[in-house]
Amino acid sequence: MHRDIKQENLMFKYKEKHDKPYELVLIDFGLSSFDYVQEYIYRRCGTPGFVAPEIIKLNKGEIYDSKCDVFSAGIIFYIL
Question: Is the distance from CB of 42 to CB of 16 less than 8 angstroms?
């Protein structure tokens, strides 16, 4: 899970000698974590406005999965 998807973490990568010279890549994996871990290093994290509700409402002992990134991507699509 990336857990901090926002416009600032999306960049275009230039690839020379390809039919599609630009590729969209995701950067800044500082808050990322594996799915279904027992204990998160940073329990509630992300940029306000892009954080999924399950991260905001997280109680001790609960876990979440990569669907929180889908929520953040949906916010980006809504803004665009």
Answer: no
Q: What is the pLDDT of residue 35?
A: 85
Mean pLDDT of the chain: 90
Distance CA 12, CA 51 (A): 23
Q: Is residue 44 part of a domain?
A: yes
Structural domain span for residue 25:
7-79
- Structural domain contains residue 2: no
Show which residues are catalytic: 4
Rounded distance, CA 6 to CA 76, Å?
7
pTM of the model: 0.83
